[in-house]
TrEMBL record:
Residues 40-93 form the Ribose-phosphate pyrophosphokinase N-terminal domain. It comes from Gouania willdenowi. Belongs to the ribose-phosphate pyrophosphokinase family. The gene is LOC114468874. Gene3D superfamilies: 3.40.50.2020. It comes from the Eukaryota. It holds the Pfam family Pribosyltran_N. GO terms for biological process: 5-phosphoribose 1-diphosphate biosynthetic process; purine nucleotide biosynthetic process. One of its GO terms (cellular component) is ribose phosphate diphosphokinase complex. Residues 171-194 are annotated as: Disordered. One of its GO terms (molecular function) is ribose phosphate diphosphokinase activity. This is Phosphoribosyl pyrophosphate synthase-associated protein 1-like. Keywords: Nucleotide biosynthesis.
Length: 323
């Protein structure tokens, strides 16, 4: 494809390696047939606004890992940061977004323009089938009941069994302290006794247990984001106690922050497989157990199809609603 006749250009912000590492993939430039144009200092919002004021016909934001995607629900009296980010992107001038495996699919409703939420499951399923020896003896594991639907989707397509880890760790004190125990300002109103609220029962944390037989099996834990790995390490220990002889973790977004590489290296986990939606080369140097699956091909194909007005349904074939 000739660059001058393609009708679109691909820009990349240089402020973070998250942008440049994925954008430099040869498959992306080969599929699109254009060279990557890098900006020396523009952030996404500034770039979008600059293109908008330059009368660009369409501005498509490719955000494989959508930031603040976990902050998509109101917790106590907190803010919904994901909604704020969606409003900012629209105000800056974006007309379309391509992302991958949103933490909650309902996030798409925060936007007033189209959002294509691609899936990494075909790539991760392919990895399981090609790179895990004797995967037929594996069992798919959900780290929590909330992850059971995603895990079940993998289990059905691989024709494997399903296990669920049930139980929660206690919240930290900083998470529980929200200021509600602080004494309110004294405001006495004559004739008003105040409203007595009913006493709410505290949530009781059940002991961690495994629903399903993992004895003598390869355990494959499925999730969308792996950031703090304490829960995964604890899950791996329980699965080992229940007889699993190998433990894999499959996730789309490998944030792997803080001490995650060291904790993984010292744990019972045999391998952590994530896509390259988030760069993690430094973490891989610290922990050889971390493996990467390239998803640049599907991102490039999504850009090409949107620009040419082609159907996006091809990219969602064999995708279930629970992915």
């Amino acid at each position: 494809m000739n660059v001058s006749r393609s009708g679109y250009r691909v820009f990349c912000a240089n402020s973070t390696s998250a942008c440049t590492e994925l954008a430099k993939k040869p498959l992306l430039e080969k599929t699109l047939g254009v060279s990557l144009l890098r900006s020396a200092y523009y952030e996404l919002l500034v770039m979008a606004y600059a293109l908008k004021t330059s009368c660009a016909k369409n501005i498509i934001g490719v955000i494989p890992y959508f930031p603040y995607s976990k902050q998509c629900k109101m917790r106590k009296r907190g803010s919904i940061v994901c909604k704020l980010l969606a409003s900012m992107l629209a105000k800056a001038g974006l007309t379309h977004i391509i992302t991958m495996d949103l933490h909650q699919k309902e996030i798409q409703g925060f936007f007033n323009f189209p959002v294509d939420n691609l899936r990494a499951s075909p790539f991760l399923l392919q990895y399981i089938q090609e790179e895990i020896p004797d995967y037929r003896n594996a069992i798919i594991v959900a780290k929590s009941p909330s992850a059971a639907k995603r895990a079940q989707s993998y289990a059905e397509r691989l024709r494997l069994g399903l296990a669920v880890i049930h139980g929660e760790a206690n919240h930290s004190e900083s998470d529980m302290a929200d200021g509600r125990q602080s004494p309110p300002l004294s405001r006495t109103t004559p004739g008003h006794t105040g409203l007595e609220l009913p006493l709410m029962m505290a949530k009781e944390k059940p002991p961690i247990t495994v629903v399903g037989d993992v004895g003598g099996r390869i355990a494959i834990i499925i999730d969308d984001i792996i950031d703090d790995v304490e829960d995964f390490v604890a899950a791996a220990e329980i699965l080992k106690e229940r007889g699993a002889y190998k433990i894999y973790i499959m996730a789309t977004h490998g944030l792997l922050s803080a001490e995650a590489p060291r904790l993984i290296e010292e744990s019972q986990i045999d391998e952590v497989v994530v896509t390259n939606t988030v760069p993690h080369e430094v973490q891989k140097l610290q922990c050889p157990k971390i493996k990467t699956v390239d998803v640049s091909m599907i991102l490039a194909e999504a850009i090409r199809r949107i620009h040419n007005g082609e159907s996006m349904a091809y990219l969602f074939r064999n995708i279930t609603v629970d992915d």
